[in-house]
Amino acid sequence: MNSMLFTASHATRNNEKSPALGKWRILAAVAVVIAALIVWKAWPRPTPVEVVSAQISPLLGHLSASGEIDGKVASVGAKTAGEVEQVYVAEGERVADGAPLARISPGPTGFAATSADQLNIQAIVSPFAGVVARRYVDPGDTVAPGQPLFTVVDPQQVWVVAYINDIDMPKVHQGLPVQVTLPTYLATTYHGKITAIGPLAKPHSELQSGARTVRVRIDLDEPMSHMIPGTEVNVDASVTLRSQALLIPADAVNENQQGRYAWVVRDGRASQQQITTGLTNYLAVEVLDGLTEADLIIIAGQQDLQVGQRVNPQPTPAVLNPK
Q1: Confidence (pLDDT) at 119
Q2: How high is the pLDDT of residue 125?
């Protein structure tokens, strides 16, 4: 009987302790979770950075220049002094090769012409088939030797003359395809090739100062009759600066006391890699030494990085050549 009472009493005390022990265990577990959260928040997480891979690719550039329509143009003038007796053509009129344009007498009309005067009468004719672009005289006008009387243009023989900055000349060669835009014709674009390169670089301004330019000729694939010599044009071309090169974005290149470097990701951490660079098209830079295709180059998020800092690389597309 006593034994049974002892057993019941012991069980009662154990039941009284169990709720208290359970509460302590719950509190301990909560404390562990809170501590883990505090540690997790305090632990430095990897900094997100945008990265691109170094790429082997052609390095392309862009060439732009101003120019004008040129062509087969002739200024037709008087050989000797005299008076315009007759004018046979108007501006815009088409003429054949050798067609009469005007007649010049050796002196004022109304006087009896001598045989010598008859011999000195000038027949002004067109030097080739084309269009009378300008007419400068009317009947009765007095003209001097060499004075321009007409300008004749052959609309079927036009080309472009462009003026290229001398610093861009290493990009230029005969046969280079170009695009020619005429702003006055709703920015219509035509295609052609550089067919001749001038031997001299000259100042492009009358002040003989500033950039020097080289004159080049561009033959168009399909010249149009509305292309009027003297019309201003814009010339653009894509040029190959290097057929194959290891490229990284130009924005990824930095400088320090040791020279140029790029931020790269190595084993999940930021690192500075010294590099040797070559040509650039201002979008991309050629890397001659210091990087390989396997390297991830940091192009955004590197402003506050420290060497060895953990990073979270996020790949992003790279624009390395002009469109």
Answers
A1: 58
A2: 95
Residues 6+ apart with CB under 8 A from 105: 82, 83, 85, 113, 117, 121
Mean pLDDT by runs of 10 across the 323 residues of the chain is 47 54 68 59 76 94 92 92 94 94 76 52 92 94 94 91 91 94 81 95 67 92 80 92 94 93 95 95 94 94 89 91 82
Establish how many alpha carbons lie within 13 A of residue 27's alpha carbon, considering only the half-sphere containing its beta carbon: 6
